[in-house]
Design a protein that fits this description.
Layout (H helix, E strand, L loop, with lengths): L9 E3 L4 E5 L5 H8 L4 E4 L4 E5 L2 H9 L4 H11 L6 H13 L3 E6 L2 E6 L2 H8 L2 H4 L4 E4 L2 E4 L4 H10 L5 E3 L26 H11 L8 E5 L6 H12 L3 E5 L2 H14 L7 E4 L9 E5 H4 L22 E5 L6 H7 L6 E6 L9 H8 L2 E4 L2 H6 L5 E9 L3 H9 L2 H9 L4 H11 L4 E5 L3 H11 L3 E2 L5 H12 L5 E4 L12 E6 L7 H9 L10 E9 L3 H9 L1 H5 L4 E5 L12
Parallel strand pairs: 5-9, 10-15, 10-16, 11-13, 11-14, 12-13, 14-15, 17-22, 17-23, 18-20, 18-21, 19-20, 21-22
Antiparallel strand pairs: 1-2, 2-4, 3-4, 5-6, 6-8, 7-8
Length: 567
């Protein structure tokens, strides 16, 4: 019999939501269990809300978590009995994963159901029926190879995610090895969690492996995990990433830590069109087309070589045209890498169906405790709107209100004060509005990187920042993703993209690479008090709150005397 105690933090409700008392002594242990199988909905100060969904349970099942473990966790941490129908539905959601299986067949691919009634349900579902080429038994259908991705999308929409065991092509053979000593002379080996993630993805070459998403915090070395997967497969690889800076960083890491040479690695971007054994392309070039009605000419890259592996870096950013072409690439192994599976467009189900289920998800705080990423203190500083802007703000529409509050000129003095308190550390000033960033950069006499900055200039400034030649750098959202600045220890966010949770996570991630000494990072978010910017800031912080980060709230008048005061 379950022993329900007042110290337990969970209240499981009949609408599939779970209330979590933050002040409970068992909160942290309960949260670490919840993030494996539930989604964070909101996180005000005292009570957080999670929701159990079919997708959250299917991801848990794909990661090897049985329904019994999910139910045991709820029983262990609940304050009151769990509603009976919730337990039944968890078992139902979990049981649906894998009842339909895709397998190889001499004439193509078969879709098989575990019983005849389910097969009849499938054949009488219009969205699926049209994708079935023929029926070859009471429970088995032949489908066209080209429809492998589309049928997986359709099946997840009707609540029966298929387990794909149809296997993969080997791709063109590429022989290389991982160095034990980097090209710069430092010793190198995979961290235990990096090796484990690569092993789970590869699954010893079995059909159950080869497609899925690895979720690791920014700074934990997702690129190294990608290299580990490539080393196990020894095959021609196409890597898709967010920008040219990220292309260069992938190339540098591959040359530094493997025996692949510069001639083996191609860049495919607006600057170059090299197709080699390992090719690294940007999402931007893949989705380029001359006009809105035209074709995407560079999507042919997917067919220009016999790729054995496609890596989707920052998979939460995957654009719709790449989703569409990925539906036809199900015979290629596919690896998604990300710090957060949160997508602002709600297409998490497409990631599950077309890239693969979540295979590994390591909590950020767990990585912090082990010293693999820096400890982070987060502080939101609220400042009033100046008197002369209150009337323009009052009569503006919501979008204009957000911009007026985001560009609050009172933030400029606060930036100086924060920078003075962290003198000697590497500081990033991050914002959304270019005019605001230009004003700050000019007033502080610091360099600025925006979308209009040439790639050559970006590379030069990033390198100077890494080398310590400059200690402060202002950046727009072009630096949100896949930019490696290992010594950055302080981030000051002066404006953001409405309620973007993944942007908040990525921006904190710019300062999480492990650091010598105290291994400490500081993340400040400057917000105009009692405005829509403050409302959106709460939404932005959702994902980080799920990971265990707490925001100290300060007002301009009570700004901490020392950095430690954000604890």
């Amino acid at each position: 019999m379950t022993d329900y105690t007042p110290d337990n933090p969970l209240i499981v409700q009949g609408d599939h939501t779970i209330l979590v008392e933050v002040n409970s002594p068992r909160y942290e242990a309960a949260r670490n269990e919840l993030i494996r199988f539930a989604e964070l909905v909101k996180s005000p100060e005292h009570i957080h809300t999670y929701r159990i969904t079919p997708l959250s349970i299917w991801n848990a099942r794909a990661a090897g978590i049985p329904a019994t473990s999910i139910i045991d966790a709820l029983h262990e941490f609940t304050k009151y009995p769990v509603p009976e129908h919730i337990l039944v539905e968890i078992n139902d959601f979990a049981a649906r994963f894998g009842r339909l299986k895709l397998r190889r067949h001499k004439k193509g691919i078969t879709l098989s159901a575990d019983n005849e009634p389910l097969a009849e349900e499938i054949v009488h579902t219009p969205a699926i029926r049209d994708l079935l080429a023929s029926r070859i038994s009471q429970t088995e259908f032949l489908i066209r190879v080209a429809d492998r991705g589309r049928i997986k999308q359709a099946l997840i929409q009707v609540g029966f995610p298929a387990e794909d065991l149809a296997g993969y092509v080997k791709g063109e053979r590429v022989d290389f090895s991982v160095r034990t000593t980097t090209s710069s002379g430092a010793g190198f080996s995979f961290r235990p969690y990096q090796q484990q993630a690569a092993d789970i993805f590869y699954a010893k070459g079995a059909d159950q492996g080869g497609a899925g998403v690895i979720v690791l915090p920014c700074g934990a070395g997702k690129t190294i995990v990608g290299i580990g997967c490539m080393a196990q497969l020894q095959t021609s690889t196409l890597i898709l990433t967010t920008n040219v800076t990220a292309i260069r960083q992938w190339k540098q890491e591959l040359m530094d830590k493997t025996t692949l040479s510069e001639e083996d690695i191609g860049e495919y971007s607006g600057n170059a069109k090299e197709i080699r054994q390992v090719t690294i392309a940007t999402y931007q070039i893949m989705t380029y087309r001359p006009n809105k009605e035209g074709d995407f000419p560079h999507l042919t890259l997917f067919d220009d070589r016999n790729w054995g592996l496609i890596i989707y870096d920052e998979v939460h950013m995957l654009p719709a045209p790449v989703f569409q072409v990925t539906a036809g690439l199900q015979a290629r192994r596919r690896l998604g890498l990300t710090a957060t599976l949160v997508r602002e467009d709600g297409k998490e189900e497409d990631v599950f169906a077309l890239i693969g289920p979540k295979k590994v998800d390591v909590p950020w705080k767990e990585m912090e405790q082990q010293g693999w990423i820096a400890k982070a203190r987060c502080c939101e500083i609220r400042i009033p709107l100046p008197e002369d802007l209150r009337m323009p703000y009052a009569v503006a529409n919501k979008r204009r209100k957000f911009r007026i509050s985001s560009e609050n000129p009172a933030k400029q003095a606060l930036i100086r004060e924060i920078m003075a308190r962290h003198k000697g550390k590497q500081i990033l000033l991050i914002g959304m509005y270019i005019d605001q960033l230009k004003a700050a950069a000019k007033g502080l006499d610091i360099p600025l990187i925006t979308g209009s900055t040439s790639q050559k200039k970006r590379d030069s400034l990033y390198e100077d920042f890494k080398d310590g030649k400059i200690s402060t750098l202002a950046v727009s959202k072009v630096a949100n993703f896949a930019v490696d600045l290992p010594d950055a220890a302080v981030a000051i966010q002066i404006s953001g993209t409405f309620g973007s949770r993944q942007e908040e996570a990525q921006r904190l991630g710019r300062i999480l690479r492990p650091k010598p000494g105290e291994n400490q990072a500081y993340f400040y978010s400057l917000v105009t008090q009692d405005t829509v910017e403050q409302d959106f800031a709460l939404k932005r912080q959702l994902f980080l709150c799920e990971q265990g980060y707490e925001y100290a709230i300060r007002t301009e008048g009570s700004l901490m005397i020392s950095p430690s005061a954000v604890d």
